[in-house]
């Protein structure tokens, strides 16, 4: 008998000759297939098998034309994006929600749109596409339709990097998921915070939890805002939980991506920051935190 070479899938069989068996590609399983029921989910990779929509909508600087871009091999179609933008720059007008709830993150004001292509070059984080506010002290934001007055629990997970702190952080808040367009201090309910010495998260008018030290390294940060406790995880390290009590305040508003300190109309509270993925649950995801982080880290190679 002749030799048989096993490579995965049988193409022919017989008592003589060579049986060639080719490999079969593994089926795609997204993060939201394993950890479903997100209230909103934004990413530059595909997160859910059943999702058939686009990834982002981009405006190019040369003529302000806009176009939607989907996925190739479950990642943003960067080849088509770069062809469309050309030698100019590209700015995100919509980051499509992959959760199935249609809470797309949008911004119509051109000067406030975050960037994805800089002078013909893709903006990246660890060699993967990333959306950026390239200048501290300059407003770049995307507004969702998810209310930040959601009752607890709420879980927020994101992958990104703070490159430079803002010019005048208010209460050390540098970017906020949740924010109000009215009133100093009357804004975000669920916040990520940073200072020259720590990262953290908290509920305005309630409790805060921090982890040190601050560094301009890529990170995966998770905050679980539970009914009586706040939990924070940063690049595989859990901060000591902080008890939470009382009723956090916040004027009615919606979650802001790239938002500045609960006051998204004030540029001095905006940091230079990359964001590649944001997932928001209105459920307690504490027991899933290591699995969610592992999935994100395996794609973005954060640490």
Task: Give the key terms.
8% helix; six-stranded antiparallel β-sheet; globular; 2 domains; 303 residues; Jelly Rolls
Give a description of the structure:
The protein is mainly beta and 303 residues long. The protein folds into two domains: 1-26, no CATH class; 35-300, Jelly Rolls, CATH 2.60.120. Helix content is 8%, strand content 34%. It contains three helices and 24 strands. It has helices spanning 31-34, 78-85, 289-300, and strands at 40-43, 56-60, 66-69, 71-72, 75-76, 90-95, 105-106, 115-118, 121-122, 124-125, 128-129, 131-133, 142-147, 154-164, 175-177, 190-194, 199-203, 208-211, 219-225, 229-234, 237-238, 242-243, 254-257, 272-281. Strands 1, 12, 14, 19, 20, 21, 22 and 24 form an eight-stranded antiparallel beta sheet that branches. Strands 2, 3, 6, 7, 8 and 9 form a six-stranded antiparallel beta sheet that branches. Strands 15-16-17-18 form a four-stranded antiparallel beta sheet, with no helix packed on it. Strand 19 (219-225) and strand 20 (229-234) form a beta hairpin. The relative contact order is 0.17. Mean pLDDT is 84; it is low at 4-12, 171-175 and 178-187.
């Amino acid at each position: 008998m002749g030799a048989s070479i096993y490579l995965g899938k049988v193409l022919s069989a017989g008592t003589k000759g060579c049986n060639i068996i080719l490999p079969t590609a593994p089926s795609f399983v997204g993060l939201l297939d394993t950890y479903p029921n997100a209230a909103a989910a934004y990413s530059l990779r595909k997160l859910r098998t059943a999702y058939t929509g686009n990834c982002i909508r981009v405006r190019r600087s040369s003529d302000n034309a806009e176009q939607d871009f989907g996925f190739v091999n479950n990642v943003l179609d960067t080849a088509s994006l770069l062809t469309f933008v050309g030698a100019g720059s590209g700015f995100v007008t919509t980051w499509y929600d992959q959760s199935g709830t249609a809470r797309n993150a949008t911004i119509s004001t051109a000067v406030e749109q975050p960037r994805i292509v800089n002078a013909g070059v893709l903006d990246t984080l660890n060699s993967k596409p990333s959306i950026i506010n390239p200048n501290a002290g300059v407003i770049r934001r995307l507004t969702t339709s998810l209310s930040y007055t959601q009752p607890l629990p709420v879980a927020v997970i994101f992958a990104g990097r703070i490159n430079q702190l803002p010019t005048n952080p208010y209460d050390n808040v540098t970017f906020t998921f949740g924010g109000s367009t009215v009133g100093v201090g009357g804004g975000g309910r669920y916040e990520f915070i940073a200072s020259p010495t720590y990262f953290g998260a908290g509920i305005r008018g309630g409790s805060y939890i921090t982890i040190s030290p601050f560094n301009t390294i890529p990170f995966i940060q998770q905050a679980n805002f539970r009914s009586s406790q706040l939990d924070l995880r940063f690049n595989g390290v859990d901060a000591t939980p902080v008890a939470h009590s009382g009723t956090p305040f916040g004027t009615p508003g919606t979650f802001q991506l790239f938002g500045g300190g609960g006051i998204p109309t004030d540029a001095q509270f905006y940091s230079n920051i990359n964001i590649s993925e944001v997932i928001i649950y209105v459920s307690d995801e504490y027991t899933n935190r290591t699995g969610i982080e592992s999935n994100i880290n395996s794609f973005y190679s954060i640490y």
